[in-house]
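Quick one:
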Amino acid sequence: MTASEQPKPVFRIIYRSHSRIPVGHRKKVLADIFLHARHRNKDAHITGALLITDHYFAQVLEGDRMTVEQLFDQIRCDPRHEDVTVLESGYVDTEPFPTW
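Output:
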């Protein structure tokens, strides 16, 4: 494998947060989040995964560092959740969620 064929490291942020979305509104609000995020993230070449439980979110965001950090800054300020905690951030050799 030549240097040009080596996988390029990607930047990753993993965070968790507490949902503030009222139970009766979750289905619609989460559907809106998914619809918006799919298009935005695809256009920005951001991949990752989102896990949702009754009261918590956990998400992995991967891509260009500046793009991921800008998106995370927007996510951090979103009033639909609180107690946003970064669990890990840094460069990784591969994207485990390349098609998300």
